[in-house]
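assembly run, all chains below
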Amino acid sequence: MEKPDSLAFPVGLLIYSAILFCATYSMRTLALANVGPAAVPRLLAAGLGLVSLAIIGNVLWFRRKAAIDGTPPTEKKQEQASGDCTAALTIVLLAFFAIGLEYLGFIIAATLYLLMQVILMRGKASSSRMAVWAGMSAVAAILVYLVFVKLFAMSLPAGLFG
Amino acid sequence: MGLEMFGIGFAYVVNPATLFIILIDVVVGIVFGAIPGLTGTMAIALCLPLTFEMTPVNSFALLMGLYVGSCSGGLISAILLKIPGTPSSIATTFDGIPMADRGEAGKALGAGIVYSFLGGFFSFAVLFLIAPPLAAISVRFGPYEYFAIALFALTLISSVSGDSALKGMASGFVGMTLATAGISPMDGFPRFTFGVIELAGGFSLLPVMMGLFAVSELLRTVGNRDDDTAGVEVRKIRGFGFTMGEFWEQKWNFVRSCLIGTGIGILPGLGGSSANILAYIAAKKCSKHPEKFGTGILDGIVAPESANNAAVGGALVPLLTLGIPGDTVTAMLIGAFMVHGLNPGPLLFQHSGDVVYALFASLIVANFVMIAVEFWGIRIFVNLLRVPKHVLLPAIIVMCLVGAFGLNNRVFDIWTVIAFGALGHLMHKYRYPLTPLILGFILGPMAELNLRRGLQMAEGNFFSFFNSPVAAFFIAVSLLSLLRVLGGWGLRMMRRQYRGGATGTSKEQP
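ok done. output:
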């Protein structure tokens, strides 16, 4: 039997739509406007809310059926938790890159990000291999910097090198 | 007259200097198209100053080379890196990725290249033969027609919703709500900015796309260390990787996609980013085997790649005949015309016919150069699949983040990439389709703007939209499409209730 869908996502969507719907009432609008700036977002938020409710209803119905049938869904919880943890760590790394870009500059932030990301994807390694990865990360960061800044005339934060 | 002028245009273009300019700029365009974060618009913006000192013919040869190259370059990253290099190649990923995973990256690339070339040629034929009458029709389109077309396109979301119409609708609504953030159209009031100044400009499409495709792919891959090598066996490529039989099977798909691409290209404000998705949806709807779409079939490559290149010539139709740009690239081309003292519009053909026909000739030559460069490069490009993912993906992500930053020189766009990456990952995890979100994000603002404009014109009376036959037709078709989806969903629910009641089991997901 297939795993029933999670309630977390549609509930999240419902909350998101409720926030948007409420926020539309704080939008300023011209008195003469036939359809003000809030009208379409309000309509969309209401539509999303209704669809989310329909999905929640469906999931609950599906769960009730599964419970009646007595066939518990098979879930690979441990594996999934490990994957979620690594994905969350990757988002943290990306966030550090975004913050580091402003303060450390592109080359340092990108080198650190690339190195940490490779370690996260490959797991622990010998110190010689780590040195190779560090070197590769620095070279890649410098290459990207040169391509975008020198060739494509884009400006990137220089940070500590500035 | 036309053929004679065309001969003169060709004579201007066929000289070593101009051909060299086209060659270099097609390569640069392909690079810009293939690198996620760099677009044809950026390439043209960057190279436009180079044209100031050139002759008009060389200027347009350069710009056409960039335009054609960047339009077809997106398919390389869409198939090999699983990230659409440009919004024009979003739909190429749907079947390109499964084909690459099966070791058929060369075949997918080959088909994409050939049909990009043919799509470009088709649009040139349209441009050459029927540009003025087509432009005259399209210029009559107003807010009613645009709203109706956008509404119709939005109702097609059900076609790209996978096995759940409800999830597709939710995804489409999320896309449309996210697109409403920023300054409202017409009256300019801030919406959903929550005190964040950068949100006043809304979310840019490129960071959204990079997050949904590139970062979410990284997040999926990091959790699976076994899936590291690009251990996909790449089959040896002969010619373009597909047979004449397969080529012939695609004839109607090709013609339909080209018509969609050219038609959408002509309509200002739509362009290749909508054309490729709509052509894909149309191909799926008309196919005898719609269930195979998304599993890696040639039809899914041919439709978007024919359409996005057909949109190139389409976008030039209103530019040359009426002086109206069809997309951001053609908006920049207006600048190039003006730099050389030319005014795009009905009189352009009379006053500067030689330059216009030289532009047509450049478009043809650029298409030939594009197919030659990509044919030669296909065997090199596929080697990307041999690079281990732990090396390839982080490097691509850095390029995406730099590209996002470079759009407006602000870190906010990097945060947008990260946030949409997380959203894309969650949606993938909970099996919500991403395509409706993209479709809603692109078409939502167009629908809203034209709905509001139309209502303003009609003093709030929505029924005025039905005064336009084109708008009435599309609104009626949209309603029918919506009713069909809701009816189908209701029927499935009833059947499920009945079956569930009879047997106590059901496998259908919400």
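The mean pLDDT of chain A is 83.

Chain A touches chain B through 75 residues (CB under 8 Å).

not gonna interpret more than that til we talk
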